[in-house]
Amino acid sequence: xxxxxxxxxxxxxxxxxxxxxxxxxxxxxxxxxxxxxxxxxxxxxxxxxxxxxxxxxxxxxxxxxxxxxxxxxxxxxxxxxxxxxxxxxxxxxxxxxxxxxxxxxxxxxxxxxxxxxxxxxxxxxxxxxxxxxxxxxxxxxxxxxxxxxxxxxxxxxxxxxxxxxxxxxxxxxxxxxxxxxxxxxxxxxxxxxxxxxxxxxxxxxxxxxxxxxxxxxxxxxxxxxxxxxxxxxxxxxxxxxxxxxxxxxxxxxxxxxxxxxxxxxxxx
Length: 268
What we know:
Layout lengths: L13 E5 L8 E5 L12 E5 L11 E5 L3 E7 L8 E6 L7 E7 L12 E7 L1 E7 L8 E6 L7 E7 L11 E7 L36 E6 L8 E2 L8 E2 L16 E6 L9
Antiparallel strand pairs: 1-2, 2-3, 3-4, 5-6, 6-7, 7-8, 9-10, 10-11, 11-12, 13-16, 14-15
């Protein structure tokens, strides 16, 4: 079939996509299943690097893992590159095993030598987000079975300027959870909290220039609307919305108008 690409992955169980290199192409990340109880290690997280020539077997990275149950993409150390959390479920006969953050190092990329271990317990899922809004991406991990018992704690690992530390972990009572979320929040390309679209361009007469733009939008808590026009050097962000009525009242639809003088008045 013309629109089919076959990839060689052992026991592929899940997939994620993100632009890990910043080249404008979404790389494909795949999680492999269990390694097997005998023979060489066979469980990996696979990164297929995308670009103008597409995906290929000779342009991929394999990162050691154990029965990958979740792939979490985020810039955990705030260095401007997206890192990869690999959630590991079991290693054959052992369930209390490590999961990993693989660091995406500038100019080097990913390597099995550049990773951080998290001792987890048959980790079946994870969620990556800045839970306390301090500017650092935290991580919640679902532990399915703790030392043979389904009753136990799943964990929240708090991130910060000094990174993750097992002394900064919050336990959450759980009963054998299976999974948390399938897809990380944020833009699929770079995981930032922005989605955008480009509207149909409209040509202005040569002697005309726009003076303002306006839009209507519903703006729930912790959301925003921005607008940008070609030639305008900075984006225009909608002011913080006002809540109308008491705490239970819905956000009203409001029209916002922002004025700006473009650098070039050709398009609006």
